[in-house]
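Lab notebook, bench 4. Still working through the backlog of constructs that have no structural model yet. Next entry is a single chain of 192 residues. Request: give me the structure tokens for it.
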Amino acid sequence: MTMPPLRKDAARNWDRIVAVARDLVDQGIPLQLNDVARRAELGVATVYRHFATPEALLETVATPCLEALAEHGRLALTDEDPRRGLESFLTRVVEAQVTDAALPPVAAAAENALPRTTELRQALAEAGTALLDRAHRAGTVRPDLAAADLVPLMCGIAHAVNISGGSPAARHATAQRYLTTLLEGLRATPTT
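Model written out:
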């Protein structure tokens, strides 16, 4: 079910709320709807009309990243090389986890506040599973690697990078190094 378009003033308010929330998330400041209302120079009721909970607002901030990842998953499934498709997808997931501060808490949440988040997380899980299945069938990854292992491994890398800190460039380089190490460890080893 699609929602009717917002009135122009309501759409401006929605955009302002999301922009303020994006800024707060990027600064590492936890979202509190009253604080967002104050910073957006809007009434608290206006913010609550658009977002019932801070989690719903955080998920809205993360939605563009989740949509881009879901699209990348669909594209990775068209790669003729199953291993390259899987590696490309996992690389993009880790990059997103270390560059978009909204993504890690949304990815780690036990429940979703918005149906759209549920759809996108499901699409990502399905893409990861399909990519891993293709790589298994091609014999290019360890046979004992399960689809359920992918999210903890990607989140683990992102968490390790976040702990190491540093500039965005340093964090990106660290993420690439950790991911390369992980991907090498996922390779199928020839049986003797």
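Notes after review: The two ends are 56 Å apart (CA to CA). DSSP finds nine helices and no strands in the chain. Flag for follow-up if needed.
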